């Protein structure tokens, strides 16, 4: 008698989109947003065609604890099997979950989006928001994600506190790279004649990212941007336009932890 039982192939290595942490979505979505993004990122790898259910079956035999089982599992803002930290959240798990859901539901409803209840519902929102794309091809379903994820604040009306926190998360690494260049490469110059494209080349960043970092440096009082004797708006500088970056290093050292190269 011949045994025709299929032999399972090697499990696919999981991938993760590079922009997930900087985008700030993990501070907005239920906890399954992280593993769902990992699942879709993996589906985008060359050589895979099929649904997310197919990938879940291929990689985890259809059940992944991290995502809550399968795609029809309920969304939550905490891990149901984790020990609850009553010092951090004395109101308890149920009250904390209810508060999160109230905020999340209001956020989506105000923006005109349906409130997802399952991981599958959330995956459809990813398609609506442009976090992911799904295309039917002759070879099967193909998944893709943009190089830079849309930001939560571009799609949802976030409260000012969360907006400030997410902006800080995104600009922090960009600002660190700019400061590292000014301190480590240039030796803390009082003035620098430069341009956004020159700073971008020196720091290995995109011009738009350098513009964000420079605007943060100015708004914090650590620097000013001048063209001639006039102050210039750091957020509106053209990429090639020369300007003088005037640093207040005393203010900088009094208000920031100095960045040094390791």
Written account of the structure:
Helix 7 crosses helix 9 and helix 8 packs across helix 9. The protein is of the alpha+beta class. The longest helix has 26 residues. The N terminus and C terminus are likely disordered. It is 42% helix and 10% strand. The strands form two sheets. The protein has a four-stranded antiparallel β-sheet. A two-stranded antiparallel sheet has the order 1-2.
Order of helices and strands: HHHHHEEHHEHHEEEH
Task: Assign the structural class, choosing from mainly alpha, mainly beta, alpha/beta, alpha+beta, or little secondary structure.
Answer: alpha+beta
Poorly predicted regions: 1-9, 258-262
Number of strands: 6
What is the helix fraction of residues, given as a range? 40-55%
Question: Could you give the topology of this structure?
Answer:
Blueprint: H1 20-23, H2 33-43, H3 52-60, H4 93-110, H5 119-129, E1 133-137, E2 140-144, H6 152-155, H7 160-185, E3 191-194, H8 196-203, H9 207-219, E4 223-227, E5 230-231, E6 243-247, H10 249-255
Antiparallel strand pairs: 1-2, 3-6, 4-5, 4-6
Keywords:
262 residues, alpha+beta, four-stranded antiparallel β-sheet, two-stranded antiparallel ribbon, 10 helices, globular, disordered N terminus
Quick summary:
This protein has 262 residues and is α+β, with helices and mostly antiparallel strands.
